[in-house]
């Protein structure tokens, strides 16, 4: 281990953030080589960090030597590293896909804006995952939101602009709410560090209120029902590569911190009823998101609504972690986030290819896609397996862990949500596969699409399925991160 | 010599790897894909024979066991093994896959490599279902089976294939998620996903009822039992011939297998108290579905409905053991007969339904019609085919000397020990089965040549003769000398019966 870990930390955060303006200045000359090289290095750095973690365990790193309570502390542990690796891998695959500029972002003119935004988003997401204090989280969240909103604008249409505006306003309102909570906590406990907060936390009303404010802010950014209205138009009118990043990674960032703050800091002081309320919102999100996905006529909108439903599942882990089954629920929820990231980006990219080949993405335009874009349709189907929670897929393992947690903690009502959500997911996945497989073989007006962007979709979908086949070591790390509360039944 | 081999793993992963290989090398060269697929399927079948040869009939314990950790944090193991229930079904699976590969030889011209790969992968998964002894492993294989079948019907199926596949998928999915909940519940009770540990559980009665109902729904959809059978005729009609063969010969058996592996041993008291329900549903299937089969105008639909009626015998046999025990008290002879009858019926139906669907496939490949009224006088033009078709129809009707007779006879005989009316209603199948099978034969095979298309028919090719000939031998062999089959499963079934009957 000759390279010091700081280098790798800089590799995942500073490198893409610095590369973003560089790419913008250098312009088309450095495209697509430089951003590709940067995203590959991010992945290498993330994996290197993981190996160091496996060797030496979790550690914190004080940026510029400023320690807690005031300094900027980075926390490197199993959970944050898994997020970073998944982010880097999804980003690298999206970058590969984006070599097909016409399908990914609607033309090479947009590439000069897309790539800087892409790198900026990648760097700020990694900063978000590595943050160790609640103010730093706020800053990173803002950066992520700004990059995300700009990516929606890149869609170019009037609908995209309107959606981006709505997204921006809600994201800003969410940030304000979150920041109010941060201020309140600092006034109460005199620290911003997540670990210190957990130590000093006391069951006082003001602390509870602070968490409610932060949770509302994070939920607005995650598009949880009923704060979800901005997501479908924003994610569906963004360019394809951006849709994949937004739906797979951006919402995962805010959800991730809601979960971690809950588990590490607030779960002991929040009343059971509050957790149940959030769980109920999650259940409603599952039902509402899936039902809306079922009635959509446009492919990208359908995929976007399914994101709302999938994040609803994740929220179920809040009430479940207040029980003995915390470890199972925690690793289940995070595994769902991770496998969803791959499945959803696969779906958006595949949908984007169909949109690109047909110029429109109404479900009626999908007819015959199975024979024209076989790999893309297969990717849609495989990713659908994860959404339905069918084995062997990452979604299955996640759903199974959540089922296990619900049954063992006696909260059987969540079982109904998990089962019902699976059915609804089957319903909307089939509403895409049905037309795709229908129609005369080999006779539809599809513009030709090269093989390799399809292969990228397929690779992502395959990863989401493989996550069900060998989850063992990662789940163990996640369960340990949950405080070793029983090791998952 | 095979003792040291991980035979079951080979049987699961060899066809899956073979399927991937067929995909990889056969995409551009269909002929190479066909020979490779045939080679793999024959190899798998040959590898399945040592299961039979090396099988010990002295014990009811699991044999050829393989056990390693898979997800240790969650207590999930890669745990395989076979007993007298699963071993014959595995061999049947390997056998049927060869037939499917052969039957598709000239018929499937659209993406043949993908078609064959789907069946090889499905073969591995189905063998996995039969040999998994870890509940989660079982569930994974059980659900994974849906995907290749979905693709087979969805891509190579008939005009209404999308409707049929989605219906097939949703029905099975509906049953299986509840089963997952039941399995997770059982894991908490047994503190293990080991199915054999689950067998040792003494669950409270109320819990047993819930678990049993979850199992019943999952397995009843697969069998399929009336009234959740409606997906089957649609799936069969739309499926290509190979899909129908696997669906009828193997997939339906997985439902029956589930009853023996899960429902009966894990929830014996609930099975006993709800036996009346299963018996009633089975008898409805035997009589009512038998009548429905008679009025079908589509040959595949007719055989599909006849499958449902015949599978009614399987569930009837399995659950008859409770009324029989109530009648006879201590003696288990008749109850064992009922269980064995159900098992023999499963294996025999595997051969006969495969044969019937292949016969329809032979006609369909020539005429592109499954309507009975389009045919007539086929025997004049296809005498060899007609002989085979008549033989299989007779077996379907339960003619003594064919395998169809053995299982039904055993179940009916056992039914007399329980209740005369059960036996009477079950016996109706001999009448109804003869009626719809022979009437089908009369309309299709006999009579004057109906039209010009029939007049232009050519008799079966050597390849088709080979397929039908092998099946004819199997049907007759099992009918004339069922003893070896019954011997291998007797210790296991006797042990199962003891487990179910001894109150814990």
From TrEMBL, chain B:
NADH:quinone oxidoreductase/Mrp antiporter transmembrane domain residues are: 132-430
InterPro entries (alphabetical)? NADH4_N, NADH_Q_OxRdtase_chainM/4, NADH_UbQ_OxRdtase, ND/Mrp_TM
**Domain of life assignment:** Bacteria
Which residues are in the NADH:ubiquinone oxidoreductase chain 4 N-terminal domain? 68-123
Transmembrane ranges, per UniProt, are: 6-26, 35-55, 85-108, 115-133, 139-156, 168-188, 200-221, 242-262, 274-295, 302-326, 346-364, 385-414, 420-441, 466-486
Q: Which GO terms describe its biological process?
A: ATP synthesis coupled electron transport; electron transport coupled proton transport
Q: Which GO terms describe its molecular function?
A: NADH dehydrogenase (ubiquinone) activity; NADH dehydrogenase activity; ubiquinone binding
Entry keyword set: Membrane, NAD, Translocase, Transmembrane, Transmembrane helix
Where does this polypeptide localize? Answer: Endomembrane system; Membrane
- Entry GO CC: endomembrane system; membrane
**Pfam families to which the protein is assigned, alphabetical:** Oxidored_q5_N, Proton_antipo_M
Indicate where this protein is primarily found: membrane
| Record membrane topology | Multi-pass membrane protein
Q: Which family does it belong to?
A: Belongs to the complex I subunit 4 family.
* PANTHER family named among the record's database cross-references: NADH-UBIQUINONE OXIDOREDUCTASE CHAIN 4
> What is the name of this protein?
NADH-quinone oxidoreductase subunit M
Source species of the chain: Alkalilimnicola ehrlichii
């Amino acid at each position: 281990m000759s390279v010091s870990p700081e280098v790798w930390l800089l590799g995942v955060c500073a490198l893409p953030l610095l590369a973003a303006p560089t790419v913008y200045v250098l312009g088309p000359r450095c495209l697509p080589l430089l951003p590709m090289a940067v995203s590959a290095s991010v992945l290498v750095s993330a994996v290197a960090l993981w190996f160091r973690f496996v060797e030496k365990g979790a550690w914190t790193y004080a940026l510029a030597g400023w320690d807690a309570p005031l300094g900027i502390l980075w926390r490197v542990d199993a959970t944050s590293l898994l997020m970073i690796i998944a982010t880097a891998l999804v980003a690298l695959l999206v970058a590969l896909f984006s070599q097909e500029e016409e399908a990914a972002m609607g033309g090479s003119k947009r590439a000069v804006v897309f790539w800087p935004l892409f790198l900026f988003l990648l760097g700020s997401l990694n900063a978000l995952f590595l943050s160790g204090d609640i103010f730093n989280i706020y800053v990173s969240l803002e950066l992520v939101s700004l990059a995300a909103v700009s990516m929606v604008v890149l869609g170019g249409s009037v609908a995209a602009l309107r959606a981006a505006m709505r997204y921006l306003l809600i994201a800003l309102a969410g940030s304000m709410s979150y920041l109010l909570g941060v201020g309140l906590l600092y006034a109460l406990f005199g620290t911003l560090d997540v670990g210190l907060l957990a130590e000093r936390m006391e069951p006082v009303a003001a602390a509870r209120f602070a968490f409610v404010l932060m949770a509302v802010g994070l939920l607005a950014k995650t598009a949880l029902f009923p704060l979800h209205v901005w997501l479908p138009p924003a994610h569906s009118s963004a360019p394809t590569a951006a849709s994949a990043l937004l739906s797979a990674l951006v919402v995962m960032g805010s959800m991730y911190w809601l979960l971690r703050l809950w588990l590490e800091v607030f779960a002991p002081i929040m009343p059971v009823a509050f957790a149940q309320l959030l769980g109920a919102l999650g259940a409603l999100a599952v039902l509402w998101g899936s039902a809306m996905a079922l009635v959509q006529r446009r492919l990208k909108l359908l995929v976007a609504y399914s994101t709302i439903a999938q994040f609803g599942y994740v929220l179920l882990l809040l009430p479940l972690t207040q029980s003995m089954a915390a470890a199972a629920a925690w690793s289940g929820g995070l595994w769902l986030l991770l496998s969803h990231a791959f499945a959803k980006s696969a779906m958006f990219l595949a949908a984007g290819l169909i949109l690109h080949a047909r110029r429109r993405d109404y479900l009626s335009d999908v007819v015959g896609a199975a024979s024209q874009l076989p790999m893309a349709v297969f990717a849609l189907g495989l990713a659908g397996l994860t959404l339905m929670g069918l084995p062997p897929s990452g979604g299955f393992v996640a759903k199974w862990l959540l089922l296990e947690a619900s049954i063992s903690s006696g909260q059987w009502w969540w079982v109904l949500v998990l089962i019902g959500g699976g059915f609804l997911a089957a319903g909307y996945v089939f509403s895409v596969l049905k037309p795709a497989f229908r129609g005369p073989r080999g006779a539809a007006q599809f513009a030709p699409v090269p093989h390799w962007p399809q292969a990228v979709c397929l690779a992502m979908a395959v990863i989401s399925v493989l996550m069900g086949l060998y989850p063992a070591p990662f789940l163990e790390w996640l369960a340990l991160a949950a405080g070793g509360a029983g090791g998952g039944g | 010599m095979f003792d040291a081999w991980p035979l079951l793993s080979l049987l699961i992963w060899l066809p899956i790897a073979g399927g991937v290989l067929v995909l990889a090398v056969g995409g551009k060269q269909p002929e190479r894909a066909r020979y490779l697929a045939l080679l793999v399927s024959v190899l798998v079948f040959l590898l399945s024979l040592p299961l039979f040869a090396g099988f010990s009939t002295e014990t009811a314990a699991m044999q050829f066991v393989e056990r390693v950790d898979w997800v240790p944090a969650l207590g999930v193991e890669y745990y395989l093994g076979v007993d007298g229930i699963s071993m014959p079904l595995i061999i049947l699976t390997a056998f049927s896959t060869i037939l499917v590969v052969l039957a598709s030889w000239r018929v499937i011209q659209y993406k043949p490599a993908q078609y064959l790969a789907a069946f090889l992968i499905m073969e591995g998964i189905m063998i996995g279902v039969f040999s998994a002894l870890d509940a989660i492993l079982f569930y994974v294989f059980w659900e994974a089976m849906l995907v290749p079948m979905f693709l087979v019907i969805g891509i190579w199926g008939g005009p209404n294939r999308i409707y049929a596949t989605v219906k097939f998928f949703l029905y099975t999915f509906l049953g299986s998620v509840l089963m997952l909940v039941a399995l997770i519940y059982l894991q908490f009770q047994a503190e293990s996903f080991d199915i054999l540990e689950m067998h040792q559980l003494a669950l409270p009665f109320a819990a047993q009822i819930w678990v049993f109902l979850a199992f019943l729904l999952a397995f009843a959809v697969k069998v399929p039992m009336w009234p959740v059978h409606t997906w089957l005729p649609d799936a069969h009609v739309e499926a290509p011939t190979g899909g129908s063969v696997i669906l009828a010969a193997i997939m339906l058996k997985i439902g029956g297998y589930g009853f023996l592996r899960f429902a009966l041993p894990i929830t014996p008291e609930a099975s006993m108290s709800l036996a009346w329900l299963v018996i009633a549903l089975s008898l409805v299937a035997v009589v009512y579905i038998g009548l429905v089969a008679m009025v079908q105008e589509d040959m595949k639909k007719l055989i599909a409905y006849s499958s449902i009626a015949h599978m009614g015998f399987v569930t009837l046999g399995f659950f008859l053991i409770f009324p029989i025990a109530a009648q006879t008290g201590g003696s288990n002879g008749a109850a064992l007969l009922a269980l064995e009858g159900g098992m023999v019926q499963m294996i025999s139906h595997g051969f006969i339904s495969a044969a019937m669907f292949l016969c329809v496939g032979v006609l369909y490949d020539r005429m592109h019609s499954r309507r009975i009224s389009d045919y007539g006088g086929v025997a004049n033009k296809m005498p060899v085919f007609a002989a085979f078709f008549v033989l299989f129809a007779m077996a379907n009707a339960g003619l003594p000397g064919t395998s169809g007779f053995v299982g039904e006879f055993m179940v009916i005989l056992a039914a007399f020990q329980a209740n005369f009316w059960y036996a009477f209603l079950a016996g109706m199948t001999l009448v109804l089965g003869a009626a719809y099978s022979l009437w089908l034969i009369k309309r299709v095979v006999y009579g004057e040549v109906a039209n010009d298309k029939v007049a232009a028919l050519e008799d079966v090719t050597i390849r088709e003769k080979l397929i039908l000939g092998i099946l004819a031998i199997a049907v007759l062999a099992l009918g004339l000398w069922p003893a070896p089959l019954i011997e291998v499963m007797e210790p296991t079934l006797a042990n199962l019966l003891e487990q179910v009957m001894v109150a814990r």
